[in-house]
Amino acid sequence: MxxxxxxxxxxxxxxxxxxxxxxELLDDKIKEKISYxxxxxxxxxxxxxxxxxxxxxxxxxxxxxxxVATHGDYVVQALEELKIANKGTIFQSETARxxxxxxxPGSDVTGVIxxxxxxxxxxxxxxxxxxxxxxxxWADTWTEIGDxxxxxxxxxxxxxxxxxxxxxSWASQKKFLRADLFTFIYFxxxxxxxxxxxxxxxxWEKIFTESxxxxxxxxxxxxxxxxxxxxxxxxxxxxxxxxLYEQDNQxxxxxxxxxxxxxxxxxxxxxxxxxxxxxxxxxILKKIQ
Length: 289
Ligand SMILES: C[S@@+](CC[C@H](N)C(=O)[O-])C[C@H]1O[C@@H](n2cnc3c(N)ncnc32)[C@H](O)[C@@H]1O
Description:
Elements: H1 3-22, H2 26-42, H3 57-86, E1 95-101, H4 107-118, E2 126-133, H5 139-142, H6 145-148, E3 154-161, E4 181-185, H7 188-191, H8 199-210, E5 216-221, H9 225-232, E6 241-252, H10 265-269, E7 278-287
Parallel strand pairs: 1-2, 1-4, 2-3, 4-5
Antiparallel strand pairs: 5-7, 6-7
Helix pairs in contact: 1-3, 2-3, 3-4
The structure holds S-adenosylmethionine.
């Protein structure tokens, strides 16, 4: 299955949810929300902006249609780099845990699943995923993905609400820290503007300090210097974090095997192509002591 085929499954479900809320007006709503998201993402560096609001199913449909498969493919490309850096496989045993911060829309988890389907030498038989996200309404979109795809790896997806700007939502949570791989995909750019008195730095301090030796961390974002420097400031001076791979601000496209035609009627109905080219920055880190 390609990422676009996986995304089509989620879109079908979101479309049904949207119909219940908007009825005949749904298609117009979705078009409106595609523009809304595009306008929001132009404003990410503006510290006075409002948070992007994903509650409406039309907004979530718009996000999944435009961005999820493409971001998922960037995850696959980054994981290939991690595999090269490891000079072997990414995972070392038959079971592993994945924690996706801001992973509600599913790009991170679908990217990891796609990577596993293409890399049969990985020893994994069972992957437990935690999608941590401030927007609860993402919860239903991907938790059944394990049932929807036939994979050699048993996939179990759990959603946990977590607002990075509210320490009460994460200070006492422990389970998500026990991950073999963390992903932060287009997340830092989304939350940096809301870094009231260093709270986001405190969050990463917890992750880097309390995670296990050997854990990998994957950051992909939109290439903007301000976000890269912000993320880098959390780990560059740490002796327990090593960088395995870094790439700054390169134009990237999904691999040729990913064809957006698999989005079927949605692509023509909304006269929209998914995002197919982006400037991205990648960091792949490892906890070494
Ligand atoms: C641009 S999306 C990125 C999603 C996904 N990782 C991807 O690459 O497609 C940003 C995600 O961060 C979530 N988010 C926004 N503010 C947040 C916060 N304060 N705490 C946790 N998650 C937040 C949103 O709900 C959304 O799912």
